[in-house]
Amino acid sequence: MKARVLLASLLLAPHATAAQTDALLGDAFEYAVYLGEEEVGREQVRLAPDGWSAEGRYDFLGVRKGSYRASLRHGEAGLLEYEFTSDESGEARSLSGVFAEGKWSVSSDEREKSVPVAGPDVFTYDDLLWVSLADLGRLLVARESRSELVAGAQVTALSGVGGLGFPVEFVDSARSTQVVGGKDLVLGFFRVKLAGKVEVTLVTTPEGVPIRIEVPAQLVRVQATGFESVHGPVTEPTSPVDAGPWRAQLSQPTHAFTVERAVEIPMRDGVKLVADVLRPTGEGKFPIVLARTPYNRLSEGALHGGWYAKRGYAFVAQDVRGRFASGGEWFPFVHESRDGSDTLDWIAQHGWSDGKVGMIGGSYVGLVQWLAAKSGNPHLVCIVPQVSPPDPHENFPYEGGAFMLAAGWWARVLEALDTGASWSAGLDFEQAYATLPLGDLDQALQLKEQEFDGQPQEGPRFSAARA
Predict the structure, then answer these.
(1) Exposure pattern of 314-332 as b/e (b: 16+ CB <10 Å)?
(2) Which residue of 97, 206, 292, 441 has the smallest Cβ count within 10 Å?
(3) What pLDDT shows up at residue 462?
């Protein structure tokens, strides 16, 4: 699936303030970008009375990475001019754009496009160009100052690459007095939805420039460096599960942590499975959280590992056999009991381990926990399987002995993860599921040759081969 970097500019309403320096952040500052607890990018920003410029880099788990430069200038009569260059995964791209007389005109290597702009309040949303949200923040502050910011109000975001617009809906706002630079400062919280789907929270200076940006659904956080004490919205727990004096006994995020990448773990048959280990910095023995996944250990480590490591746990994220960096043949269910037990033994022998391991995760990452528990390994003291199939013959991929067609969809998704392609593009699933004999379902789903055999040693012989 090819991702794109959208670098563009801002159209401010006639009554809004043009881009300018910020009283708190000044005319130059830096954003650090985090996925979970791991830093995945940096962006250097310069603000000027007539616009801004930025340059940055990003590496989201090695799947999406690159660098970019962008600049924006405000001219007479609402004229906007911008330029950018980017290099994503080795592919260079350039764009230039002009907004004038109610039209947004974009010229790129691939095409030229001009679209009319509707509504008085329009800005361009730039994917991974975080300074663009300063333009949105200023626009929201201007509306709020005129008492025009109500729930459901919309502005239009423009895509430079796509040459189209989509709605940004205001949800709510609040004020938070926080200590910044030794002084009490009233900051703004603005919650919006992009295209009616993705919720984003901006914590802004009084002028509207974000100090912190949160995208909760994607576990993305962007923080202006030097302002790490600034926090996002804090919700007091009220449910019986989340509230109560027992919360004071929970581990607190007080540890720095280190990351060991691509650690090879030998299995009993000589195959080496690859894992990342995130653990508290310094000496000591720590309890372990293990996640074994066919969906890429990098995402498990980035999204969850740092959270546990900061709270005094070592987190091991492992690619299961035959997936991504791990060796061997990918054969769902078949090796997970033995491989899980061998991984537990490997963890227990290290000096940073206290020998007690818990496992967590959902779907297949939950199912491998049951199979590891089946081995009887004494180091496994806790499992937390979530939305997990309970048995390969009951629920998934077989239900009472009947093969579930959804397992074919799952194989398609796994192969798409390997190739970066779309799992749904170019395929009529209804027609594919009508295929007979069922042994040809893999070809109908445009997969590499698969095996469907209900009598393997530990589970159904259903292989979603690596691309």
Answers:
(1) bbbbbbbbbbbbbebebbb
(2) 206
(3) 39
DSSP 395: B
Sign of CA dihedral 125, 127, 131, 136: positive
Tokens of residue 17, six digits: 């303030």
What is the enclosing helix (H) or strand (E) of 442? Answer: helix 441-444
Find the DSSP H helices in 94-216: 132-145
On whether the CB atoms of residues 156 and 166 are closer than 8 A, the answer is yes
- Look at the pTM and tell me if it is higher than 0.85: no
Q: pLDDT band for position 205 (50/70/90)?
A: very high
Backbone angles phi, psi at 71, to 5 degrees: -150, 150
Confidence of residue 363 (pLDDT cuts 50, 70, 90): very high
> Which three-class secondary structure string do you get for 265-285?
EECCCCCEEEEEEEEECCCCC
Write out pLDDT tens, residues 289-308: 999 999 999 989 988 999 99
Distance set, CA 21 to CA 76, 133, 180, 387 (Å): 19, 15, 18, 49
Cβ–Cβ under 8 Å, residues 129 and 5:
yes
Instruction: State yes or no: pLDDT of 5 exceeds 70.
Output: no
DSSP 26: B
Question: What does the domain layout of the chain look like in residue ranges?
Answer: 28-224, 252-386, 398-462
Q: Which residues contact 170 (CB under 8 A, 6 or more apart)?
A: 140, 149, 150, 151, 152, 153, 154, 155, 190, 191, 192
d(CA 151, CA 174): 12
Instruction: Return d(Cα 141, Cα 20) in angstroms, integer.
Output: 14
**What CATH class has 252-386?**
alpha beta
Contact 134, 52 (CB under 8 A): yes
Amino acid at 43: E
236 and 252 Cβ atoms separated by less than 8 Å:
no
Q: What letters, b where the CB count within 10 A reaches 16 and e where it falls short, cover 69-87?
A: bbbbbbeeeeebbbbbebe
- For residue 434, what are the contacts with CB-CB under 8 A and spacing of at least 6? none
3-state secondary structure labels for all residues of 301-334: HHHHHHHHHCCCCEEEEEECCCCCCCCCCCCCCC
As to burial, measured by CB atoms within 10 angstroms (0-12 exposed, 13-18 middle, 19+ buried), residue 184 is exposed
Instruction: List residues bridging with 191 in a β-sheet.
Output: 172, 201
CB-based contacts of 221-224 (< 8 A; 24+ apart in sequence)? 221/33, 221/34, 222/31, 222/32, 222/33, 222/34, 222/130, 223/31, 223/32, 223/34, 224/25, 224/29, 224/30, 224/31
